[in-house]
Amino acid sequence: MTNLAQWLAAQPVDPKLASVVATMAAASAEIAAVLRLAPIAGQTGLAGHTNVQGEAQKALDVISNDIVLNHIGENPAISILVSEELDEAVHFENQGGFMVATDPLDGSSNLDVNVTVGTIFSVLDAAGGLLQKGSAQLAAGYAAYGPATSLVLTFGQSVAVFTLDAAGQFVLTLDQVRVAVSSGEYAINTARERFWDAATKGYVDENVAGETGPAGKRYNMRWVGSMVADIHRILMRGGIFMYPLDSETVSKGGRLRLLYEANPMALIVEAAGGGATTGRERILELLPTGIHQRVPVILGSAEEVARVEGWYAKG
Ligand code: AHM
Ligand code: MG
User: Would you say the CB of residue 190 lies under 6 angstroms from ligand 1?
Assistant: First the structure.
């Protein structure tokens, strides 16, 4: 058995960068422990305030953010933290080297129903400033708090999956994960159909037509509503995740956030051989304009992503 510390020590990366990933793993293990007992501890419901996105924060959003803040404050290699839950970037004095961008608790609307949620993070060279392209990411990962807690990591070349054991250690359970090139599963919030653009509607209509349409095969739709859970399914058995630009989200640029949702997931999916696009541009090539910028997100199996890009190329 290989644990996370052993695996990190064997990676051909700066040990300080490895320590940043270890810090986020430790924060995730602590969040997993809190989530498991939260209903007993009364850590449920709303925190009573809204974040910069205008979204009501849950008590566990705030607790998870505090856990990440504490862990990062203890690692001298991290000088900047960008979090979904914090309006401004946090700068740590006397610390240096790396920046972490994180969604400490993604999918928190699923907390009350005991459905998988997650932590997503991106690691960059702090010297590059707050607004760097996703292609500059040095590492990315997410923890999925489901029946098991999975930690998925990449330094941009390959993707490894760890599982949290009863002693609180992450054990390597899958290495060199590849996203299936083709798939018969797609994930999109179909209740938004009336807002969709022609490309999204065209692609989904083809899937719904299944073997009777131009796609020539049958599709299933799966939508957890936690990006981490939907992406984890795609990593394990293929598929495509879509939160495209639609007529309602267009004024905001999209629904999901570039720095700590789209970019880390794009790095992971591309490192596993999949695609990640807005429909018109590679996500990792976008130059951010703000730390909480939103973007359209389409990622997963290469053939499916190419089909969606084909629809966008039509008009
Ligand atoms: P959050 O970061 O506030 O939890 O929002 C992100 C979530 C994603 O996990 C999920 O894919 C999406 O928002 C669901 O959005 P919607 O409720 O519009 O379907
Ligand atoms: Mg989120």
Answer: no
Distance 40 CA to ligand 2 centre (A): 24
- What is the residue range of 260's domain? 185-314
- Which pLDDT value is given to residue 94? 80
**pLDDT for 267:** 98
Domain count within the chain: 2
Note whether residue 127 is domain-resident: yes
Per-residue pLDDT tens over the stretch 106-132:
998 899 899 999 999 999 999 999 999
pLDDT band at 43 (very low <50, low <70, confident <90, very high): confident
Same domain, 26 and 101: yes
Contact 177, 235 (CB under 8 A): yes
How far lies 88's CA from each of 17, 27, 149, in Å? 23, 20, 29
**pTM reported for the whole predicted model:** 0.96
Specify whether 20 is located in the same domain as 81.
yes
User: Is the minimum distance from the CB of 57 to ligand 1 under 6 angstroms?
Assistant: no
Q: How far is the CA of 59 from the centre of ligand 2 (A)?
A: 15
Shared-domain flag, residues 30 and 115:
yes
Which residue in 131, 127, 162 sits closest to 148, CA to CA?
162
User: Among 174, 199, 229, which residue terminates a domain?
Assistant: 174
